Amino acid sequence: MSGDDPQPCRPESAHWPSWLRVWGPTIVWLLVILTATSVPGKAGAASNGVDKFEHFVAYAVFGALLRRSWQLTGRLSGSRLWPAALLIMGSAWALLDELHQIPIAGREFELSDVAADVIGLLAGFWLAAYWQYRQRSRSTHKT
Asked: Is residue 2 part of a domain?
């Protein structure tokens, strides 16, 4: 890791509050998504552009938070597989989230929702990386 990277917080060796600071926001956001998708809906109301935009935004936030948590645990440095790992984890959550809606009245499984989720997830990864790059370039120019 370079000197600019945040100090890693490894859950297996850290105290609970440190682990909670690293993963807490991501877990809370997943619970927000799960809660929102557990509310019964109106049949036929879900298949519009607004719905896809909501999926995109929710998963963009999730992607940024997932990248942040992964980075703070020190897992982004030294591995070229982290983008694939994050994509698999986020996509699995999106798929499970859609599957859990099948028995809920007025909700249904839609592959287009999963696609909007995954695109949002990738956008969140990218935006978080871009924000980190901008922060580093600003701190480099100040010295």
From this structure: no
Q: Could you report the per-residue pLDDT of 89-140, keeping only the tens digit for each?
A: 999 999 999 999 999 998 889 999 999 999 999 999 999 989 888 888 877 7
Tell me whether residue 86 is in a domain. yes
In a domain, 97, yes or no: yes
Task: Indicate whether 127 belongs to any domain.
Answer: yes
CA-to-CA distance for 29 and 62, rounded, in angstroms?
A: 7
Token pair 């695109």 in the structure block, residue: 119
The two structure tokens encoding residue 55: 């999926």
Task: Please state, in angstroms and rounded to a whole number, the distance separating the CA atoms of residues 39 and 93.
Answer: 17
Q: Residues 6 or more apart from 100 whose CB is under 8 A from it?
A: 34, 37, 38
Mean pLDDT throughout 17-27? 89
Domain that holds residue 130: 16-142
